């Protein structure tokens, strides 16, 4: 199953760094948060990624083009036909498709633009700025049992985000209220499982996935919540980055599920 990562936004709330690079390339430790997200999925055996690029997408392309240089010791032998030797090769079992989905395309439009790389297959979907210790295998199993069109990881971080009205008996999301100021409710934590029928709900590049597509699906009773009571943290601001950085440096990062 492919993993689609939305990595094309401007990151205006963390503009101290995002004026130089796209937000998914802002580093936690010495690796971009995008790398951390991919390592979470890879831990559960999901290694085929489709990354939706937009703002400064070339930075992400260059990172993967030079991945060996980032991760391995190398010798450049200019006396021998400019030969490059890679030592202690640190490779990932990843297949990474990088798709330019437009600088100003909305989130729904970005998903629509990668449909040809997905085909008629179920896929994972998340944002390029949040990490969690959610059990991806349990998420997929919940989706399969629910029969929903989209299963969304629901978390409870407090009052900064939109809230979900969840039917406790069925886990169906009855209402999706983006950017509400209500406090303490369940919110969209990303880490979704999506059926390919989703492309029928995205008419054009201007479609905002959260306020348009998910709202419509919720109204039809086909948006399902997978409640996650563990760790989740997005990186919207420098303060958020500081929280993640401190957890990583102290070797207490809950999202580090890999060895």
Fold and architecture overview:
With 259 residues, the chain is of the alpha/beta class. It has one domain: Spore Coat Polysaccharide Biosynthesis Protein SpsA, Chain A, CATH 3.90.550.10. The chain is 29% helix and 26% strand. The chain contains 9 helices and 16 strands. A hairpin with a 5-residue loop joins β5 (73-77) and β6. The chain is globular and about 70 Å long. The model has no long low-confidence stretch (mean pLDDT 89).
CATH class placement:
Alpha Beta
Beta-strand content estimate: 25-35%
Q: Pick out the low-confidence regions.
A: none
Distance between the termini: 23 Å
Counted up, domains total 1
Measured on Cα atoms, how large is the radius of gyration?
A: 19 Å
Oligomeric state, counting identical vs distinct chains = single chain
Largest sheet: 8 strands, mixed
């Amino acid at each position: 199953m492919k993993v689609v990562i939305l990595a094309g936004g401007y990151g205006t709330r963390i503009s101290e760094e995002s004026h130089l690079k796209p937000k998914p390339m802002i580093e936690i430790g010495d690796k971009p948060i995008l790398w951390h997200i991919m390592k979470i999925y890879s831990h559960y055996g999901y290694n085929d990624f489709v990354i939706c690029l937009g703002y400064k997408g070339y930075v992400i392309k260059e990172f993967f083009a030079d991945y060996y240089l980032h991760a391995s010791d190398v010798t450049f032998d200019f006396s021998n036909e400019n030969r490059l030797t890679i030592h202690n090769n640190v490779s990932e079992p990843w297949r990474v498709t990088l798709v330019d989905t437009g600088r100003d395309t909305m989130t729904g439009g970005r998903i629509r633009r990668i449909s040809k790389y997905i085909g008629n297959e179920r896929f994972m979907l998340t944002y390029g700025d949040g990490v969690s210790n959610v059990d991806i295998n349990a998420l997929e199993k919940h989706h399969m049992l629910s029969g929903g069109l989209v299963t969304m990881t629901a978390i409870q971080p407090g009052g900064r985000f939109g809230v979900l009205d969840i039917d406790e008996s069925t886990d169906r999301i009855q209402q999706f209220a983006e950017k509400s100021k209500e406090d303490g409710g369940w919110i969209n934590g990303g880490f979704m499982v999506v059926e390919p029928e989703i492309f029928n709900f995205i008419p054009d590049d201007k479609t905002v996935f959260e306020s348009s597509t998910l709202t419509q699906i919720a109204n039809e009773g086909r948006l399902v919540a997978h409640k996650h009571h563990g760790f989740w943290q997005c990186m919207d601001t420098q303060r958020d980055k500081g929280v993640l950085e401190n957890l990583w440096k102290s070797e207490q990062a809950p999202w580090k599920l890999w060895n």
